[in-house]
Amino acid sequence: MEVDSADEQEEETRSQGGQAHGQVSRSNNTGATFNTLSSLSSLKPGEIPDAAFIHAARKRRQLAREQGGEAPLVETETPKKRLVREDQDASDDEDEEEKRIRFSGVKNKSQRQKIAEEIGIEGSDDEALDTGQDEEVSRWEQEQIRKGISIPQVQSNQPEDNTAYYQNSYDSQPYGSSYSIPFTYSTVAPQTVKPSGRADNGSVHYGASISDLTPVSIDLVKKRLQDRLSQMHAGYNANAKRYKQIDEDLAASESTIQQLEGSSNDNADQYKFLQEMRGYVGDLLECFSEKVPAVLELEAAMHQLLRQRASRLVQRRQDDIRDESSEFASLSNKAVMAPNLDSFGRDRAAYQEHSRQRRIAEREARRTRRRQAREQNGKRAEHKEGLSSDDEETSTDITSFNMERDRIIRECKKVFEDVVEDFHSLDCIKSHFEVWRGEYADCYRDAYIGLCLPKLFNPLVRLQLITWNPLEVQCANFEYMLWFESLLFYGFEEHSMLQRGDGDIGLLPAIVEKVIISKLTVLAEQVWDPLSSSQTARLVGFIHRLMKGYPTVLHGDNQYTQELLKTVVLRTRRTLDEDVFLPLYPKNVLENKNCGPYLFYQRQFWSCVKLLGNILQWEGVLSTSCLRDLALDSTLNRYILSALQTTDTNEENVQKCQKVVECLPVQWFSGLKGQQTLPQLEPLCRYLTHLASLLHRSTFGTSDIERRTTKEQVKEVVKMLGHMNALDHIITVAAEHGIKDMKPLLEAKS
Questions:
Q1: What ranges does the record list as Basic and acidic residues composition bias (predicted)?
Q2: Is the full-model pTM beyond 0.70?
């Protein structure tokens, strides 16, 4: 029997039974029942009876009992209601054609015999079948009742779904289960898969037996529920964690939104301020690009004015030395020279002689004025000719200098005359950047304004320093100028301190480095005269103050400081080569102390000693090796010692040597060990030893007073050797001249 034919008959029977049940009333039940019972003979062998067939059979038995006097089996309305529900389920099954039920049975026996064997009916007559059908109906009803109070487990050949573990629907229970027929069912798509219950040879295969299905126990259900609960807990925890993270992200986002909404106004204000500063700085730089060349021109004009005055004084000194040297050389050499005529036939020598006579008159007038000034001060006795600086100027030169200086000052005031105060006043410019620093410190720091301000303020500071000259007596201290006082407290707040990494800390040192030291370098090269003791003292004192006040600027590794010191050394060497001159005359010429050559020689000698003292003022500024080279090798041994060795005036030479030794720094000898002095001072020590011998020999045949005087001079020589730590030479002089009281001299040295 094929499944399709059985299904069609079953659906037909259900449809007829349902229509008869719904339309026929109780008055005409007898006629309808006989119509239905007439179809009982149409049941084919092996065909499974459906619900309508069973209902018709019950009606037939009921009529038979009523006619034969037998009591009815069951008179309840439940089967009718159940049959109605089954009819409705059958109609639903017609709509749902996605799945079909495939039955498998025994092919060797007919379906009728199989059902009879299962329900225990041996015969095949109608009476036995009726009896078996009654028992079967009763068993089917009991089975339906059992299904109503219990939930059976149907094991299918499909994978188990934990979410649909129990089969609760009524239509999911196949009819064959009521007959205890071994079966299996599977869902197949309609008209696509060939039924697998029947083989090609017509044999029927049995499905899995109900006894082979996995038994369901309470522990198994409990275990699966616990597993499911654990999974749900794990999912809940993950969801809770995710919810918490999302909640935190939401709170952070809301906080960020509030912060951005609150800072939007600040950013707008900052943007507006920066745009204003951008425009202001652009205008300021444009103004400076027009005015800075004028400032540099005025500064160069002032330097040129100072350089001209210094060059004029140096040139006058060189002309005086040349005139005196040529004058005294002509006295010793009377050679006749041919006249030197110019293009107009005039004698050049006569013209040069006229100029020379004019210079001599001016020179002698200056010396007379200085001599009178010393007499008024009471310093004539201790003064030596040549120690004074011949830097006096004529009234014409002074007037011309002052007029040009006043013109430069007036031009300085006119530089920013056509500029509003915001673009040339240090206070106004500084105030703009102070507002920037105070309100937007991070932006101010990121823009490196602290590194730009020294260059920005540079032109305004240089404009105020145009007439500043530390080599003059009446020179104002730059720390009391307006620019310094204005920038002194830049970036300083009352309740806060400048931090180490703040670039504004180095504002003033940077200006001192780039403006003050640069200007000082120009003045040292063009204006400073190393032969002037006053200028040298002022310059050295000013540099010492800078070293104490600005140690981060005035040190050997600074580029500007190195340039300044290099300029000082080069200017000193140029003076040694061009301005120092010591004439060499015969001894008979120098015997007359009132003659011109002797006075000229003395003047030049003391001028050289003054230069030695000026050079040694740089102790602590220049390096020791450089200073010793300039002072000892290039000045003392080259000029002074040569002049001392050419004269026989022993008494005067002792005094000259004392002045030379007094100039030597004490620090040079404090760290010496042993009995020897500095190598550069060995020639001077040998000369002093020789001078002591000459003094000792000069006392032969003299009076006691002269011998005592000579002995005191020898002791002075020993003291000078002790000052230079020349102990070996002291021992030689003491042994030669019998000096026994050496201990006080050595103690004085130590």
A1: 77-88, 136-146, 346-365, 373-387
A2: no
